[in-house]
Specification:
Endo-n-acetylneuraminidase fold, 4-stranded mixed β-sheet, Wnt_CS, single chain, alpha+beta, 44% helix, 2 domains, 3-stranded mixed β-sheet, 10 helices, lipoprotein, wnt signaling pathway
Length: 374
Amino acid sequence: MKKLKVTVDEKHRMPKTHTTSIYFMLLLFFKMASSRDSILAHQLKLSSSLTCRLIGGLTREQRTVCHGSPDTAAIAFEGLQMAVKECQHQFRWHRWNCSSLLTKSSNPHASGIMKRGFRETAFLYALTAAGVAHSIARACAQGRLLSCGCDPLGYRASHDRGRARANKWEWSGCSHNLAYGVEFSKKFLDIREQVDDLQSKINVHNNNAGRSILASHMEVRCKCHGLSGSCQLRTCWRAAPDFRVVASSIKRQYRKALIVAQEELNNDPSILRGRPRGRRRSRARPAPKTSLLFLEKSPSFCEVDPKMDSAGTSGRVCRIGRTSRTGSCDLLCCGRGHALIRKSSIKPCNCTFHWCCRVDCQKCQDDKWVAICK
């Protein structure tokens, strides 16, 4: 009986020993996982810090901000690149088409045209400021940044402000954090400008114009929940729109940009006044917050000029047709004329479907005549 009792005790001890070994294995696993996460975080911080040193065109103050928030600065650089690509789309039929901005650096502010006071410069300042705020606002909601998350106000707080909620079954989703995006955009871009410089004041105004246009296009998106697609429950959130919508709105402001009236600056330096182009005799008025301001007349951009980031228009594809049409050969080629070039390509044609399941196509030559500026 005594021997049997010892055996029973040993059987009871075995699960305890086995549990202890599992505990130490799990502890070792979590320790290895946490050390791996810390190594990855350290590598990410090193990579981001290296990016802050390698990106050209940053001021000393910007590098300080970049080293302080390297992950957010990396998203800001994504916003700058998005703005440059959208600039190329918006100006694809203009003499200056943003083509040289990507070849300079990942930072478009390193280009020569950003140091001038042209209308194109005003468009770029507004577009890049909106691009940085747009990218960071989305990244916060996507969980890509540790320093921010969803908009703390959310859809419900902003949507129901000042009125009673009509639908009590409306839930608030994860809204894009526009406030944080705008804040970092100001912190990272406006710090470039000098306090007492006229061009710097214009640049800050155009930055704020781009961010204001972005804020005015914020959307409310909703998703329905319920049986058979019914909308018994609805989740809504505020979201930044497609960036092309914002860029198109900034492009409209570019067309009606105001030239700064320098004679009015002595009255109140804190207020920038402007008048429409070609109306020198009209009275200068305080510039609205969404208007773009410029200081000097733009060059023709017909010839190559590295200082102005002008690649010229020679070799550009133009449109044959009305003279006043954007991208027309008469305007784009600057009076040099154009040449017609035939471009041939092989495309599938006369396709037939065979049951089942095969599609047979012939190869046909497709010829197109393209107008190229001389």
